[in-house]
Amino acid sequence: MVYTVKKLSELSGVTVRTLHFYEEIHLLKPAYYGSNGYRYYEEKELLQLQQILFFKELGFSLKQIQKVVGKSDFDQLAALHNHKRALLAQLEKIGLLVKTIDKTINHLKGKKKMQDKEMFDGFNITLIQAKEGQSYSSALKLVAESVRNPTKNTEDVTKRGKVYYDDIVKTAHALFKELVCCIEKDLDPIADEVQKIIKRHHAFANEIHDAKKEVYLAMAQLYREQPEFQKQLNCFHPRLSAYMAEAMEGFANQYLS
Q: Is the pTM of this model over 0.70?
């Protein structure tokens, strides 16, 4: 089926003005122009618009989306699988946050006391808790035991939790996207430009964990080996987890003691 820009706007919820802007920046061009000057879009363009919206939902900027979807080797199916993994991870995290809210409500009502560690379930993106009955690997245990406890006041945690979580996610995603740019430039993980980003990542991790050398190396090992950690990064770039692990190991071995 063929859509005019007005009909595509009604179908997708994207404004006509935005569709015009996407055309101006060569992000989404019409399939063809009619003799009447109208823009016409076909299935290929609809699927491309869907990809743009998926990437936007995952926090990518338009400039970053242009770099990804504009590549000659862009794999639409691979991208969809990555989107699915990322959204399922988000869904799992939201479910955990809802459980944390319910536990906190019951705690404040005096119905059931929370454990201190339960107050942060779902917030910490650098730590994946083991599923019930699953044993910790030595690296996972080391990272788990390194978590700092910023406060023990349940009411304060409840008030600041959303802001705290949003700030963590925003910072982490910005660092991940900078590293993706380094991958696309084909920079060595131990190159100065990459290591400057990793230095900031270490400082960020150190706010949540006691990120001394052995802990930071354990985090790198988890990004390299653990599927639960890798899937956090798959939506940014399929090579990011391995690349980041190598960069973190280089930083830890050179700068940490």
A: no
Dist. CA 26–CA 16, nearest whole Å: 15
| Domain match, 41 and 132 both | no
Q: What is the pLDDT of residues 103-132, one digit of tens each?
A: 888 888 888 887 766 766 665 444 444 443
Dihedral sign for Cα atoms in the order 54, 57, 60, 62: positive
Nearest to 189 by CA among 226, 125, 126, 240: 240
Find the distance separating the first CA and the last CA of the chain, reported in whole Å. Answer: 62
- Expressed as residue numbers, the domain containing 15 is 3-56
Q: In the chain, which residues have pLDDT < 70?
A: 89-90, 116-117, 119-137, 149-165
Q: Indicate if 172 and 226 belong to the same structural domain.
A: yes
- How far is 189 from 81, CA to CA, in rounded Å? 26
The count of domains in the chain is: 2
232 and 107 in a single domain? The answer is yes
Q: What is the pLDDT of residues 5-16, one digit of tens each?
A: 999 999 999 999
Q: Residue 22 and residue 27: Cα distance in Å, rounded?
A: 5
